[in-house]
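Suppose you are handed only these lines of text.
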Amino acid sequence: MIRIGIVGTSSISHRFAEAVAQVEGVLVSRVASRDGGRARSFAEAIGAPGTAIGLAELLAADDVDAVYVASPNSAHAAQIAQAVDAGIPVLVEKPAVLSAADWDAAVARARDRGVVLLEAMRTAYDPGLAVIEAVLPRLGTVRRVSFRYEKRSARYDHVLAGEQTNIFDPALGGSALRDLGVYPLHALVRLFGAPRTVQAVRVGIASATDGLGSALAAYDGFVADVAWSKITDTALPSEIQGEEGSLSIDAIDAPRRLVLTPRGGEAEVIVVEAPANPMVGEVVRLRDAIAGADIASDQHLTAVTLRLVDDLLAAPLV
Ligand SMILES: NC(=O)c1ccc[n+]([C@@H]2O[C@H](COP(=O)([O-])OP(=O)(O)OC[C@H]3O[C@@H](n4cnc5c(N)ncnc54)[C@H](OP(=O)(O)O)[C@@H]3O)[C@@H](O)[C@H]2O)c1
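From them, the structure of the protein bound to NAP can be written out as follows.
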Protein backbone atom coordinates (compact mmCIF):
# COMPACT_ATOMS: atom_id res chain seq x y z
CA MET A 1 0.00 0.00 0.00
CA ILE A 2 1.38 3.44 -0.96
CA ARG A 3 0.67 6.00 1.74
CA ILE A 4 0.29 9.50 0.33
CA GLY A 5 0.72 12.78 2.18
CA ILE A 6 -1.22 15.75 0.79
CA VAL A 7 0.29 19.25 0.78
CA GLY A 8 -2.33 22.01 0.65
CA THR A 9 -5.90 22.13 1.83
CA SER A 10 -7.87 23.72 -0.98
CA SER A 11 -10.70 22.13 -2.97
CA ILE A 12 -8.33 20.44 -5.44
CA SER A 13 -6.81 18.44 -2.57
CA HIS A 14 -10.33 17.26 -1.67
CA ARG A 15 -10.87 16.13 -5.23
CA PHE A 16 -7.51 14.37 -5.19
CA ALA A 17 -8.40 12.52 -1.98
CA GLU A 18 -11.65 11.36 -3.63
CA ALA A 19 -9.63 10.04 -6.57
CA VAL A 20 -7.20 8.22 -4.28
CA ALA A 21 -10.14 6.48 -2.62
CA GLN A 22 -11.09 5.00 -6.02
CA VAL A 23 -7.66 3.50 -6.76
CA GLU A 24 -6.39 0.21 -5.37
CA GLY A 25 -3.05 0.16 -3.61
CA VAL A 26 -2.99 3.78 -2.42
CA LEU A 27 -4.40 5.74 0.50
CA VAL A 28 -4.03 9.18 2.02
CA SER A 29 -2.19 8.82 5.34
CA ARG A 30 -1.58 12.47 6.24
CA VAL A 31 -2.51 16.02 5.36
CA ALA A 32 -0.02 18.86 5.71
CA SER A 33 -1.00 22.47 6.14
CA ARG A 34 0.84 25.55 7.32
CA ASP A 35 -1.81 25.61 10.03
CA GLY A 36 -2.39 22.69 12.43
CA GLY A 37 -6.11 23.33 12.83
CA ARG A 38 -6.66 23.44 9.10
CA ALA A 39 -4.71 20.21 8.65
CA ARG A 40 -6.87 18.50 11.29
CA SER A 41 -10.21 19.63 9.90
CA PHE A 42 -9.17 18.71 6.35
CA ALA A 43 -7.90 15.29 7.48
CA GLU A 44 -11.18 14.66 9.31
CA ALA A 45 -13.20 15.68 6.26
CA ILE A 46 -11.43 13.17 4.01
CA GLY A 47 -10.97 10.47 6.66
CA ALA A 48 -7.15 10.62 6.76
CA PRO A 49 -5.58 9.44 10.02
CA GLY A 50 -2.64 11.86 10.29
CA THR A 51 -1.64 15.49 9.93
CA ALA A 52 1.54 17.53 9.72
CA ILE A 53 2.38 21.19 10.05
CA GLY A 54 4.37 22.01 6.98
CA LEU A 55 6.19 19.86 4.45
CA ALA A 56 9.26 19.08 6.59
CA GLU A 57 7.08 17.42 9.25
CA LEU A 58 5.19 15.51 6.57
CA LEU A 59 8.39 14.20 4.98
CA ALA A 60 9.76 13.12 8.36
CA ALA A 61 6.67 11.04 9.17
CA ASP A 62 7.17 7.26 8.98
CA ASP A 63 3.82 6.68 7.28
CA VAL A 64 4.32 8.78 4.15
CA ASP A 65 5.61 7.02 1.00
CA ALA A 66 4.76 9.77 -1.52
CA VAL A 67 3.47 13.34 -1.56
CA TYR A 68 0.90 15.16 -3.66
CA VAL A 69 1.77 18.87 -3.83
CA ALA A 70 -1.16 21.24 -4.37
CA SER A 71 0.24 24.58 -3.24
CA PRO A 72 0.46 27.82 -5.27
CA ASN A 73 2.62 27.41 -8.38
CA SER A 74 5.53 29.47 -7.06
CA ALA A 75 5.98 27.10 -4.10
CA HIS A 76 6.28 23.92 -6.20
CA ALA A 77 9.99 23.98 -7.14
CA ALA A 78 11.27 24.27 -3.56
CA GLN A 79 8.75 21.70 -2.31
CA ILE A 80 9.75 19.23 -5.05
CA ALA A 81 13.42 19.67 -4.10
CA GLN A 82 12.65 19.15 -0.41
CA ALA A 83 10.70 15.94 -1.05
CA VAL A 84 13.18 14.56 -3.59
CA ASP A 85 16.06 15.19 -1.20
CA ALA A 86 14.13 13.21 1.41
CA GLY A 87 13.77 10.37 -1.13
CA ILE A 88 9.99 10.74 -1.29
CA PRO A 89 8.18 10.43 -4.68
CA VAL A 90 6.30 13.55 -5.79
CA LEU A 91 3.12 14.15 -7.75
CA VAL A 92 3.02 17.92 -8.21
CA GLU A 93 0.06 19.93 -9.47
CA LYS A 94 0.21 21.64 -12.84
CA PRO A 95 2.06 23.69 -13.83
CA ALA A 96 4.76 21.59 -12.17
CA VAL A 97 7.08 24.59 -11.87
CA LEU A 98 7.34 28.11 -13.26
CA SER A 99 9.71 27.44 -16.16
CA ALA A 100 11.11 24.65 -18.33
CA ALA A 101 14.57 25.29 -16.84
CA ASP A 102 13.18 24.73 -13.34
CA TRP A 103 11.58 21.49 -14.54
CA ASP A 104 14.77 20.25 -16.16
CA ALA A 105 16.59 20.91 -12.87
CA ALA A 106 13.89 19.16 -10.84
CA VAL A 107 13.92 16.11 -13.13
CA ALA A 108 17.74 15.92 -13.01
CA ARG A 109 17.62 16.06 -9.22
CA ALA A 110 14.96 13.36 -9.05
CA ARG A 111 16.84 11.09 -11.48
CA ASP A 112 20.11 11.52 -9.57
CA ARG A 113 18.39 10.34 -6.43
CA GLY A 114 16.22 7.72 -8.13
CA VAL A 115 12.99 9.39 -7.00
CA VAL A 116 9.71 9.49 -8.95
CA LEU A 117 8.65 12.99 -10.06
CA LEU A 118 5.43 13.42 -12.00
CA GLU A 119 3.29 16.40 -12.91
CA ALA A 120 -0.37 15.99 -11.93
CA MET A 121 -1.48 16.86 -15.47
CA ARG A 122 -4.81 15.07 -15.44
CA THR A 123 -5.25 15.51 -19.21
CA ALA A 124 -2.15 13.38 -19.78
CA TYR A 125 -3.85 10.39 -18.16
CA ASP A 126 -7.34 11.02 -19.45
CA PRO A 127 -8.82 8.24 -21.63
CA GLY A 128 -10.26 10.93 -23.93
CA LEU A 129 -6.84 11.81 -25.33
CA ALA A 130 -6.21 8.18 -26.29
CA VAL A 131 -9.59 8.07 -28.09
CA ILE A 132 -8.71 11.23 -30.05
CA GLU A 133 -5.36 9.71 -30.99
CA ALA A 134 -7.10 6.60 -32.30
CA VAL A 135 -9.58 8.65 -34.37
CA LEU A 136 -6.98 11.02 -35.91
CA PRO A 137 -6.13 8.86 -38.97
CA ARG A 138 -9.80 9.08 -40.07
CA LEU A 139 -9.45 12.86 -40.49
CA GLY A 140 -6.83 12.61 -43.23
CA THR A 141 -4.09 15.23 -43.39
CA VAL A 142 -4.55 17.56 -40.42
CA ARG A 143 -4.65 21.22 -41.45
CA ARG A 144 -6.04 23.10 -38.45
CA VAL A 145 -6.22 22.49 -34.70
CA SER A 146 -8.25 24.77 -32.43
CA PHE A 147 -8.04 23.94 -28.74
CA ARG A 148 -9.51 26.03 -25.95
CA TYR A 149 -10.09 26.06 -22.21
CA GLU A 150 -12.00 29.17 -21.20
CA LYS A 151 -13.88 29.32 -17.93
CA ARG A 152 -14.57 32.38 -15.83
CA SER A 153 -13.23 31.94 -12.31
CA ALA A 154 -15.27 33.08 -9.30
CA ARG A 155 -11.95 34.39 -7.99
CA TYR A 156 -11.86 36.96 -10.81
CA ASP A 157 -14.49 38.83 -8.78
CA HIS A 158 -11.77 39.47 -6.18
CA VAL A 159 -9.59 41.04 -8.85
CA LEU A 160 -12.50 43.19 -10.00
CA ALA A 161 -12.99 44.26 -6.38
CA GLY A 162 -9.36 45.41 -6.28
CA GLU A 163 -8.09 42.48 -4.18
CA GLN A 164 -5.19 40.16 -4.98
CA THR A 165 -5.98 36.45 -5.04
CA ASN A 166 -3.43 33.62 -5.39
CA ILE A 167 -4.50 32.27 -8.74
CA PHE A 168 -4.21 35.73 -10.34
CA ASP A 169 -1.18 36.84 -8.32
CA PRO A 170 1.97 36.98 -10.47
CA ALA A 171 4.11 36.82 -7.33
CA LEU A 172 2.72 33.30 -6.72
CA GLY A 173 3.00 32.24 -10.35
CA GLY A 174 -0.68 32.96 -10.94
CA SER A 175 -1.81 33.40 -14.56
CA ALA A 176 -4.65 32.12 -16.71
CA LEU A 177 -2.07 30.65 -19.09
CA ARG A 178 -0.42 28.70 -16.30
CA ASP A 179 -3.76 27.73 -14.78
CA LEU A 180 -5.93 26.70 -17.76
CA GLY A 181 -3.79 27.31 -20.84
CA VAL A 182 -1.52 24.43 -19.89
CA TYR A 183 -4.30 21.89 -20.54
CA PRO A 184 -4.85 22.59 -24.26
CA LEU A 185 -1.11 23.13 -24.68
CA HIS A 186 -0.40 19.76 -23.11
CA ALA A 187 -2.98 18.08 -25.36
CA LEU A 188 -1.46 19.79 -28.41
CA VAL A 189 2.03 18.57 -27.54
CA ARG A 190 0.79 15.09 -26.68
CA LEU A 191 -1.06 14.72 -30.00
CA PHE A 192 1.21 16.63 -32.40
CA GLY A 193 4.57 17.21 -30.70
CA ALA A 194 6.35 20.55 -30.34
CA PRO A 195 5.44 23.26 -32.88
CA ARG A 196 8.09 24.88 -35.05
CA THR A 197 7.21 28.36 -33.78
CA VAL A 198 4.62 29.91 -31.50
CA GLN A 199 3.29 33.43 -31.00
CA ALA A 200 0.95 34.76 -28.31
CA VAL A 201 -1.36 37.57 -27.37
CA ARG A 202 -1.94 37.80 -23.61
CA VAL A 203 -4.64 40.08 -22.27
CA GLY A 204 -3.75 41.63 -18.93
CA ILE A 205 -6.05 42.21 -15.96
CA ALA A 206 -5.80 44.50 -12.95
CA SER A 207 -3.75 42.00 -10.94
CA ALA A 208 -0.95 42.37 -13.52
CA THR A 209 -1.16 38.92 -15.05
CA ASP A 210 -2.93 37.47 -18.06
CA GLY A 211 -6.66 36.83 -17.72
CA LEU A 212 -6.98 35.34 -21.18
CA GLY A 213 -4.97 34.88 -24.31
CA SER A 214 -4.40 33.08 -27.57
CA ALA A 215 -1.47 31.29 -29.13
CA LEU A 216 -0.81 30.57 -32.77
CA ALA A 217 1.50 27.64 -33.36
CA ALA A 218 3.09 26.66 -36.68
CA TYR A 219 3.51 22.98 -37.53
CA ASP A 220 4.69 21.45 -40.78
CA GLY A 221 1.58 21.70 -42.99
CA PHE A 222 -0.89 22.93 -40.39
CA VAL A 223 -1.70 25.64 -37.88
CA ALA A 224 -2.87 25.34 -34.28
CA ASP A 225 -4.63 28.03 -32.31
CA VAL A 226 -4.97 27.68 -28.57
CA ALA A 227 -7.25 29.86 -26.43
CA TRP A 228 -7.35 30.16 -22.64
CA SER A 229 -9.33 32.34 -20.28
CA LYS A 230 -10.20 32.62 -16.62
CA ILE A 231 -12.25 35.80 -17.06
CA THR A 232 -14.78 34.73 -19.73
CA ASP A 233 -16.75 31.61 -20.62
CA THR A 234 -17.05 29.98 -24.01
CA ALA A 235 -19.76 27.95 -25.69
CA LEU A 236 -17.34 26.71 -28.35
CA PRO A 237 -15.82 23.23 -28.48
CA SER A 238 -12.26 22.39 -29.48
CA GLU A 239 -11.78 21.04 -33.00
CA ILE A 240 -9.34 19.27 -35.29
CA GLN A 241 -9.82 19.76 -39.04
CA GLY A 242 -8.39 17.31 -41.54
CA GLU A 243 -8.76 17.11 -45.31
CA GLU A 244 -11.11 14.10 -44.91
CA GLY A 245 -13.15 15.22 -41.91
CA SER A 246 -13.38 17.21 -38.71
CA LEU A 247 -13.48 16.23 -35.06
CA SER A 248 -15.32 18.36 -32.53
CA ILE A 249 -14.22 17.85 -28.90
CA ASP A 250 -16.42 19.00 -26.03
CA ALA A 251 -13.57 19.67 -23.58
CA ILE A 252 -9.93 19.21 -24.49
CA ASP A 253 -8.82 18.82 -20.85
CA ALA A 254 -11.20 15.87 -20.37
CA PRO A 255 -12.80 14.84 -23.68
CA ARG A 256 -16.11 13.03 -23.15
CA ARG A 257 -18.15 13.65 -26.32
CA LEU A 258 -16.50 13.74 -29.72
CA VAL A 259 -18.28 14.38 -33.01
CA LEU A 260 -16.55 13.03 -36.08
CA THR A 261 -17.88 14.44 -39.35
CA PRO A 262 -16.35 12.80 -42.44
CA ARG A 263 -16.17 14.98 -45.57
CA GLY A 264 -19.62 14.77 -47.20
CA GLY A 265 -20.80 12.16 -44.65
CA GLU A 266 -22.94 11.75 -41.54
CA ALA A 267 -21.72 12.96 -38.16
CA GLU A 268 -20.79 10.18 -35.73
CA VAL A 269 -20.90 10.75 -31.98
CA ILE A 270 -18.16 9.05 -29.95
CA VAL A 271 -18.73 8.89 -26.21
CA VAL A 272 -15.64 8.46 -24.03
CA GLU A 273 -16.00 6.21 -20.99
CA ALA A 274 -14.02 7.66 -18.10
CA PRO A 275 -14.06 7.77 -14.32
CA ALA A 276 -16.27 10.58 -12.99
CA ASN A 277 -13.26 11.97 -11.12
CA PRO A 278 -10.73 13.10 -13.75
CA MET A 279 -7.81 12.80 -11.30
CA VAL A 280 -8.01 9.01 -11.06
CA GLY A 281 -5.60 8.53 -13.98
CA GLU A 282 -2.78 10.50 -12.40
CA VAL A 283 -3.16 8.57 -9.13
CA VAL A 284 -2.87 5.29 -11.05
CA ARG A 285 0.18 6.63 -12.88
CA LEU A 286 1.85 7.65 -9.61
CA ARG A 287 1.23 4.20 -8.16
CA ASP A 288 2.61 2.51 -11.29
CA ALA A 289 5.62 4.85 -11.43
CA ILE A 290 6.50 3.97 -7.85
CA ALA A 291 6.20 0.31 -8.87
CA GLY A 292 8.80 0.95 -11.59
CA ALA A 293 6.93 2.18 -14.69
CA ASP A 294 9.14 4.31 -16.97
CA ILE A 295 8.05 7.95 -16.69
CA ALA A 296 10.69 9.53 -18.95
CA SER A 297 8.10 10.33 -21.64
CA ASP A 298 5.70 11.82 -19.07
CA GLN A 299 8.49 14.09 -17.86
CA HIS A 300 9.42 14.98 -21.44
CA LEU A 301 5.84 16.04 -22.24
CA THR A 302 5.87 18.31 -19.21
CA ALA A 303 9.19 19.78 -20.36
CA VAL A 304 7.95 20.50 -23.90
CA THR A 305 4.72 22.03 -22.59
CA LEU A 306 6.60 24.24 -20.14
CA ARG A 307 8.93 25.41 -22.92
CA LEU A 308 5.85 26.55 -24.82
CA VAL A 309 4.55 28.30 -21.71
CA ASP A 310 7.93 30.07 -21.37
CA ASP A 311 7.63 31.30 -24.97
CA LEU A 312 4.04 32.45 -24.53
CA LEU A 313 4.73 34.23 -21.24
CA ALA A 314 7.34 36.31 -23.07
CA ALA A 315 4.51 38.09 -24.93
CA PRO A 316 3.75 41.43 -23.25
CA LEU A 317 0.31 41.96 -21.75
CA VAL A 318 -2.05 44.03 -23.87
N1 LIG B 1 -5.87 19.56 -11.40
C1 LIG B 1 -6.78 20.49 -11.36
O1 LIG B 1 -7.87 20.36 -11.92
C2 LIG B 1 -6.48 21.74 -10.57
C3 LIG B 1 -7.53 22.57 -10.17
C4 LIG B 1 -7.22 23.67 -9.39
C5 LIG B 1 -5.89 23.96 -9.06
N2 LIG B 1 -4.90 23.14 -9.52
C6 LIG B 1 -3.50 23.41 -9.16
O2 LIG B 1 -3.37 23.16 -7.77
C7 LIG B 1 -2.45 24.07 -7.19
C8 LIG B 1 -3.13 24.80 -6.06
O3 LIG B 1 -4.11 25.65 -6.61
P1 LIG B 1 -5.20 26.35 -5.67
O4 LIG B 1 -6.01 27.24 -6.49
O5 LIG B 1 -5.85 25.31 -4.85
O6 LIG B 1 -4.20 27.22 -4.77
P2 LIG B 1 -4.44 27.97 -3.38
O7 LIG B 1 -5.85 27.79 -2.95
O8 LIG B 1 -3.92 29.35 -3.54
O9 LIG B 1 -3.45 27.21 -2.42
C9 LIG B 1 -3.53 25.81 -2.21
C10 LIG B 1 -3.07 25.49 -0.81
O10 LIG B 1 -1.70 25.85 -0.65
C11 LIG B 1 -1.51 26.45 0.62
N3 LIG B 1 -0.99 27.80 0.40
C12 LIG B 1 -1.70 28.92 0.15
N4 LIG B 1 -0.88 29.97 -0.03
C13 LIG B 1 0.37 29.50 0.14
C14 LIG B 1 1.65 30.08 0.07
N5 LIG B 1 1.80 31.39 -0.15
N6 LIG B 1 2.74 29.28 0.28
C15 LIG B 1 2.60 27.96 0.53
N7 LIG B 1 1.40 27.35 0.61
C16 LIG B 1 0.30 28.11 0.41
C17 LIG B 1 -2.83 26.47 1.33
O11 LIG B 1 -2.87 25.38 2.22
P3 LIG B 1 -2.56 25.61 3.77
O12 LIG B 1 -2.91 27.02 4.07
O13 LIG B 1 -3.42 24.64 4.44
O14 LIG B 1 -1.09 25.33 3.93
C18 LIG B 1 -3.85 26.25 0.23
O15 LIG B 1 -4.94 25.49 0.63
C19 LIG B 1 -1.97 24.99 -8.31
O16 LIG B 1 -0.75 24.53 -8.81
C20 LIG B 1 -3.07 24.84 -9.36
O17 LIG B 1 -2.60 25.07 -10.67
C21 LIG B 1 -5.18 22.03 -10.23
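What can we learn from it? The CA atoms of residues 229 and 244 lie 31 Å apart. The chain has ten helices and 14 strands.
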